[in-house]
From TrEMBL:
GO function terms (MF aspect): FAD binding; UDP-N-acetylmuramate dehydrogenase activity
Keywords, alphabetical: Cell cycle, Cell division, Cell shape, Cell wall biogenesis/degradation, Cytoplasm, FAD, Flavoprotein, NADP, Oxidoreductase, Peptidoglycan synthesis
GO BP of this protein: cell division; cell wall organization; peptidoglycan biosynthetic process; regulation of cell shape
Protein name stated in the entry: UDP-N-acetylenolpyruvoylglucosamine reductase
Positions annotated as active site in the UniProt record: R189, S263, E359
Assigned GO CC terms: cytosol
Cofactors required: FAD
Compartment(s): Cytoplasm
Organism: Segatella hominis
InterPro entries, sorted: FAD-bd_PCMH, FAD-bd_PCMH-like_sf, FAD-bd_PCMH_sub1, FAD-bd_PCMH_sub2, MurB, MurB_C, MurB_C_sf, Oxid_FAD_bind_N
Pathway: Cell wall biogenesis; peptidoglycan biosynthesis
Catalytic activity: UDP-N-acetyl-alpha-D-muramate + NADP(+) = UDP-N-acetyl-3-O-(1-carboxyvinyl)-alpha-D-glucosamine + NADPH + H(+)
Gene that produces this protein: murB
Cell cycle listed as a keyword: yes
Pfam entry (one): FAD_binding_4
Amino acid sequence: MKDIKDYSLLAHNTFGIAATCRRFLEYASVEDARKVAEMLTEQDQPVLIIGSGSNLLLTGDYPATVIHSSILGIRAIDRQELLNEGWITAADVTAEKTMDSLASQEDEIFVECGSGVVFDDFVAYCVEHGYYGAENLSIIPGEVGASAVQNIGAYGVEAKDIIYKVEAVELSTGKIVKFDNSDCEYSYRQSKFKKEWRDKYLITRVVYRLSKTYTPDLDYGNIRSSLAEKGISNPTAKQLREVIIDIRNAKLPDPKIQGNAGSFFMNPIVDKTKYEELVSLYPNMPHYTIDACHEKIPAGWMIDQCGWKGKSLGPAGVHDKQALVLVNRGGAKGQDVVRLCKAIQDDVFHKFGIEIHPEVNIK
């Protein structure tokens, strides 16, 4: 376990913002996490729990304590092992047998990951071993623990679709708790860990539920057209993963070269009335149907329509290939990015009458 005072966070935020925290704690096991809970005092508050910092914008030095997981390990387990190791109870098994068909249970496989595992390493492990359902989440930056907090998603798939259980240590008591997927109240880029549970739990392990049967999801974005360019009509999971990696790399900047936090804004979900109003004005407006009453409008498209793609406001700017991504052009401070964010929000609201909100955690 690490316990360091006046610690630089430059390597812990992909925006490349130079900032420090008063104290940095890193836990490498469940027992370490419990020790962290025991040693926290009022001077450590409010704690900031981070992953790789790929969804974080620091607006200055953090005056309290930052906590990070370095728990590693990826392994496949079956339902009996889940029972033996206390992830589920006999009552859970009975209840799930009632809800699931025998065939679906025979098709499933569970993968347990430490919260400090790089999320894409988990996806790669699944594809390599023939465990399916995570392919569309390839190369999303961040760590396993953050996937359970943020409900990360891409190309029609979200973490909530495959998360089965989340283990955490409660900071106020040091107690180890295990949450079901339903406990976490997942929605688009949201969970209870971002709301009432915010900074109250240290996530230690996540169990994902995958399938042994490969059923590719190709109907989001430009997946099919990108496959067609390669002459692939029925991709393997490996080919699908490679195409998604190529798509993302082509439009998203490498944070090692140009600081960024990936998609900065969430795509707004609007009701049908608002959607119909907009589509009458912009017939070619892209959209994704959520349900009979709601449509999702790409924030990047609206930002582009406002003329921001490739533009800068001081040392902070909008990426020239993907308007959803804000970048550090060099030497930007967190406040520079916040100023750009607010200018974009104002322009989008003025043009479309829609409020867009940051996906990034601003501290």
